[in-house]
Write a structure and sequence with these properties.
Beta-Lactamase, Arc Repressor Mutant, subunit A, five-stranded antiparallel β-sheet, 11 helices, elongated
Length: 251
C-alpha cells in the first residue's frame, strides 16, 4: 500500500491533486490537519518575506489567519528545532522545554492560541537541504482529543513510513508550479524572463515573440515589480526560486 501511494504521489501533476491525496492519507494515520511550509530566502535574521513562502494547509481558515496572518508562526515552539535539524520530532520536545522554563513569551502565547484552537499534539518533520537559504517542513497535527502520548505511540508503530511518505510529498511539491503566491507572473512575463535566462537581449526577445523592444521592456518591468526586486537578474533568480519560470502549464 505504501508503494502504491508513493507512486500516486509521484504521478501527481498539480499541487491541488497532490495535497488532497496527502491530507487524506495522513488522516488515516490520525493526523487530520497539516501545514507545509517552504522558503528559499532564509537568512540568519529571518525566513524571508511571507509573500515568498510556499504554504499548503488544510487547517480551518480561522486558525491560519492567526497562525500565519498574525505572524505567530515565527514564535512557534517547534520553530527552533525545525530550523536547526532535519528529521522528525515529537511535540513532547516543546513540553520538555516548557518544564525547564525555556519558552519565550512569544512561544507561550502560541501555545495558548494552539490550545484554544485544538492544536495540542503532533509531530514536525524538517526536510534536509543542501542550502542554508532553503528550509521546508511539515507540521502534522493529531485529531482533537488525541494526546501526545497517543501520538508518540502512533509514531512508534508507523513513524518510518509517515516520514518517508512526507519526504516524497515534499520532493514532489518542489517540482510543481505554485500559483497561489502574490509573486505570480503572467505567461508573457515568464516567457521574457526565460529568454533572458537563455542569454537573449531585449532586441532578440522582441524578434522572438513578435513584439517591440518597448513591449519587452514593459514585461520585464512588470515582472520586476511583481517579484519586488530591482534588477532583471534578481527577477530571474527569484522567479526560478519560486518556480515561476521554466515550467509546463497544465491544461
Amino acid at each position: 500500500m505504501t508503494l502504491d501511494y508513493i507512486e500516486t504521489l509521484t504521478q501527481s501533476v498539480s499541487l491541488e491533486a497532490l495535497w488532497d491525496r496527502h491530507t487524506s492519507r495522513m488522516a488515516e494515520f490520525g493526523f487530520d490537519r497539516l501545514i507545509y511550509g517552504y522558503t528559499s530566502f532564509r537568512t540568519n535574521q529571518s525566513l524571508g518575506e511571507a509573500e515568498d513562502f510556499i504554504i499548503l494547509s488544510n487547517h480551518d481558515q480561522s486558525y491560519l489567519d492567526r497562525f500565519l496572518g498574525d505572524g505567530l508562526y515565527f514564535d512557534a515552539p517547534m520553530m527552533p528545532w525545525t530550523l536547526n535539524n532535519s528529521g522528525a520530532c515529537s511535540w513532547s520536545w516543546v513540553q520538555d522545554r516548557a518544564d525547564k522554563g525555556l519558552l519565550s513569551a512569544g512561544e507561550k502565547e502560541v501555545l495558548r492560541v494552539n490550545e484554544e484552537m485544538g492544536v495540542t499534539a503532533g509531530y514536525t518533520i524538517s526536510f534536509p537541504s543542501m542550502s542554508s537559504r532553503v528550509k521546508g517542513a511539515m507540521s502534522l497535527v493529531a485529531a482533537p482529543g488525541v494526546s501526545q502520548k497517543e501520538v508518540d505511540e502512533i509514531w512508534e508503530a508507523n513513524g518510518r513510513t509517515i516520514e518517508l511518505i512526507n519526504q516524497v510529498a515534499h520532493l514532489k511539491i518542489m517540482s510543481l508550479p505554485y500559483d497561489y503566491s502574490p509573486r505570480s507572473l503572467t505567461s508573457r512575463q515568464r516567457e521574457v524572463l526565460e529568454w533572458v535566462g537563455e542569454g537573449k537581449s531585449v532586441q532578440d526577445i522582441a524578434l522572438l515573440i513578435s513584439r517591440t523592444p518597448a513591449t519587452v521592456e514593459k514585461h520585464l518591468r512588470l515582472a520586476r515589480a511583481a517579484l519586488n526586486v530591482q534588477t532583471t537578474a534578481q527577477a530571474l533568480l527569484k522567479a526560478s526560486f519560486l518556480r515561476q519560470i521554466y515550467r509546463l502549464d497544465q491544461g
